[in-house]
Amino acid sequence: MADKPSRGLVLYGDGLARFIEPSHTHPHSLASKANCGFLSLPNAPPSESEDVRIVREFALLVDACEAYFNKNGQKSQESSVIPTMSERFMGMRAALFTNNSNLKSFGEKIGFSVLDLNRLYGNSNSPPALSVDKLASELLTLLGFQEGKIMESGQFDLVILHIGSGENLNVEEGKATASDMEFMNALLGAIMLVAQPGTEIGSRLHLSLVMGYGYVSKADDPDLSILSPNFEKNPHLSALFPRQSYNMRGESPRNDVRHHSPMLIAQYQYAVTRKDMVESFSFEDFKEHSGNLTIPADRLLHEIAFKLWKAPKYGA
Fold it and tell me: 115 to each of 99, 161, 200, 252, 281, how far by Cα in Å?
């Protein structure tokens, strides 16, 4: 446990997990230093649109499903007022960067300071590779890290950057998400260069890289299942074993867990997070060697808030 609160940066690659290649060296480098694992999701509703999926999965990441269901008319008008991020997490100041209009609206509803991603890396006519250093610097400055030093207080305690779904870069449809992955790789490299082990920033920055698969189908199931091989071959065996923690919410079972295509997460803070045996940012390596195994996606923010001294410890 750190002797001072961390400041959190979450890079969320929405739909980028399937585009990671060996040439994307920075996610692999981070995974080799970090504590890695899976974030489980529920099954998607039938005929869900891409716009709806983006907001729903983000709502899960920040444990704001009540606000999401209320927004989509699935709860009564008598539902209680949705608490803001600050109210839920001891005054935590949180910012969300995205270009998705629906996600901007939802973020504002749950108390994020929502900022347009184009504000940071310029208009779409500028080559993104030329602006990653500036973007990394801007993100860190918002957290109170400037010129290698830690300011007494930053503008925010937590910054979440949403990249993906082919809308952030001005490229042809079908190539957008792969280009987003290139951009994410370069940005992560720029941040890791500044926040190296032993530096002031490295000791206080809690960095999370989250990669989702976006829209998934049954075709993804065989290769991306988080179930143990024995359960995959004989599902009846599951009745003989206790439910794993990601299948539970408190004492109640989660009955709609999707056992394939989870989000992948690597978390790193020098001398704070544990290192596991993972060497590459890949589903196969995480399943075989990760230290964090699988937790529900809606528990992630509670884990991060604990590191920021904005929430009690979740889990063991």
Answer: 8, 10, 27, 37, 28
